[in-house]
Design goal:
about 180 residues; rod-shaped; 4-stranded antiparallel beta sheet; about 20% strand; Alpha-Beta Plaits; 4 strands
Amino acid sequence: MIKINLLPARPRRRFAIALPTLPGLGLLFGVVYVVVIVAVVGYWVSLNNQGNLLTAEIVRLEAETARHKASIAEGTRFKKEKEDLERRVALIDLIARNQARPIYLMDALADTVPQDIWLTSVEEKEQVLKIAGSAFSTTAVADLMSNLKNSGKFRDVDLIVSKQDLAKTPRVVTFEVTCRFSI
């Protein structure tokens, strides 16, 4: 036997996601478009306000800088004047020390020269003092050198030349001593 189904065929149902229809999709895109436009405009307004605030801050800082430039220039001028005055004071001190140096030198030499010595020249060149003279004996020259060393005012005492002329009747020793004098 043959069975014949006379009922109309039912379509099978599929599981499907309901996609929005064209009018609903247009509404969705319209809302998204408006939200994006509002966000962009809000961001632009925010950036514009920040720009205005930064411009106002720059103007304020430039005015403050201009106000402080006068103080900075005055401070620089005072610093230059101070350096100039310090240089002048140092120069005056140096001149005063160098003026008194020969007096101190002669005073120190007078205290250290023994009785049997005659100084013929005292010369100072580049901080080196050259003392030339004559004596009756080499012992007097040695006494002069030890007095110079022990005085504390002379250092680096060296005997350069010591000659005795045997032809002359009073046998005189001529000498030359170098040292450094410090006040």
